[in-house]
Amino acid sequence: MEYRVEELARLEGVRVDTIRFYRTRGLLAPPERRGRVALYGEEHREQLAQIRSLREQGFKLVQIARLLAQREDPTRPGGRPAPPASDRLLDALVEEHVGARTFSRQELAAQAGVPETLVTAAQAAGLVEPIQAGGEERFGEADLEMARAGLELLGAGFPVHELLALAVRHAEHVREVSEAAIALFDEHVRKDPGGRERDASRVTDQFRTLLPLLTRLVAQHFQRTLVHRAMERVADRGSESELRDALVATEAALEVNVSWR
Q: What's the whole-model pTM score?
């Protein structure tokens, strides 16, 4: 089947401008030109469906562009298009972000033992980011662990508003560093020294290996910095010897465990 852009837009329930925008961003393959007429085919409908699916899962357009850039052309037996090679990397991204189990906001609050309004506040602050699954927001196991850790901090006496404000400041810095790390991954891992895309299976394996290592490195640096600054402050006071001894012991046994399900 062949479609003009207006027909494709009507069939897929999108605007013509949206299709043209996706083309300029490299998300859609160029149409076939016959004179002044641009014709789209079934492959463009499949591409639009995949973009819609990825967006429903919470991926941004820049992330979708990176994933779709690794599509492969080979076909399966029987003439059916092969799934994009990036699907393996997408599966890895979703698995690391969400984990094996997901929760609704109500389920997350119940499992963590926190008010649902606190989960809503954390989401509004950008501290937890659900994915869209079947039109519903779903939270992952990492979000559950964060909620439980936050509850313990509140139990230790931290005011909720000040704790959230501090977490937002931290999250802003983390996003900035994460974008830089992704750029490094794209340039030095996803591509070879000649700028060619590496095999998707190899990239996925390296992603699974490097992500826990990078997470451990960042967590250890944060924990070590926190301990050192606390030790300096205690030393400045010249008292609280028991706290100082505890910090020294913590420094000696400093360890951060990171595991992905």
A: 0.47
